[in-house]
User: Which sequence fits this backbone?
């Protein structure tokens, strides 16, 4: 810094300009070029694909090991127990079944594809009606304390009832198996939607409601502009739980009502003593339920706060 001052003072005194410009190095301070490490001095780092490969292995290997362990236990059980098909035999039967999943040989002999579609149709109708009734009811129960106190004992009493207990009521009322199965899905899948929606409404910050009161908003605008965006994550959680319940219920309902459907197909294969087909149906039911849940999880993430 002293060199800078001396150079400036010389210029004001009429001294000829010098070509040597003052630098920080001249003041005794290290230069950036000298402080920076040379490329040769940079230590060799690990290649970038190694962390990615390690992360991929941590994510993929545990599920693969779990599936391999399940298949190994299954194979050991099939060797010890009579009647339990081996994984290889089940795989060969699955290849045959899924080579033509949409054949029709009569009303009670159809491909597994038609049975899955029939079950999904019943679940869609019953679940759709439950959503149309349950979500508005959840809003009302969460919004009005009197209604909440009135419905709470009824919901607490009816919610734990087994799905199979509702099926005879449906057969008595509708006199047909198909609407009775839809009724069972409806009554069993409506409770998670009501409870989660009501809980979401009750957890809306009171400041939001105070602002609505100051602005003198109508009840419709309070629901559509304030409550609905705030309650949406809770509502989607209730929908996800309900679709899982509906898919569980349809198998039991179709076993008892008959006709066409994945539940009826399981019962029919049991009567034909085709255990390997029952094992295939178990995997199909699990995979379809997993796909339904994952689809609703994607929708829930899309509408959750903080996601773009």
Assistant:
């Amino acid at each position: 810094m002293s060199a800078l001052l001396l150079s400036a003072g010389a210029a004001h005194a009429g001294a000829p300009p010098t070509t040597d410009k003052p630098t920080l190095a001249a003041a005794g301070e290290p230069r950036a070029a000298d402080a920076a490490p040379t490329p040769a001095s940079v230590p060799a780092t690990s290649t970038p694909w190694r962390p990615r490969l390690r992360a991929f292995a941590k994510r993929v290997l545990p599920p693969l090991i779990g599936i391999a362990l399940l298949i190994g236990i299954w194979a050991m059980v099939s060797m010890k127990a009579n009647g339990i098909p081996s994984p290889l035999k089940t795989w060969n039967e699955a290849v045959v079944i899924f080579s033509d999943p949409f054949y029709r040989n009569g009303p009670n002999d159809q491909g597994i594809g038609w049975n899955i579609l029939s079950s999904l149709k019943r679940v869609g109708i019953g679940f759709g009606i439950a959503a149309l009734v349950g979500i508005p009811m959840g809003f009302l129960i969460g919004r009005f304390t009197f209604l909440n106190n009135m419905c709470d004992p009824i919901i607490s009493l009816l919610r734990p009832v087994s799905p199979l207990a509702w099926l005879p009521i449906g057969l008595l009322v509708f006199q047909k198996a198909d609407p009775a199965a839809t009724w069972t899905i409806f009554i069993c899948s409506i409770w998670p939607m009501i409870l989660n929606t009501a809980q979401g409404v009750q957890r809306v910050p009171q400041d939001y409601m105070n602002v609505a009161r100051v602005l003198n908003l109508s009840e419709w605008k309070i629901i559509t502009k304030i409550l609905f965006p705030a309650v949406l994550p809770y509502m989607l959680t209730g929908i996800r739980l309900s679709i899982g319940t509906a898919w569980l219920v349809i198998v039991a309902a179709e076993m008892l009502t008959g006709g066409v459907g994945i539940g009826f197909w399981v019962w029919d294969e049991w009567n034909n003593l085709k255990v390997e087909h029952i094992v295939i149906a178990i995997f199909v039911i699990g995979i379809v339920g997993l796909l339904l849940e994952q689809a609703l999880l994607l929708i829930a993430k899309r509408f959750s706060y903080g996601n773009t």
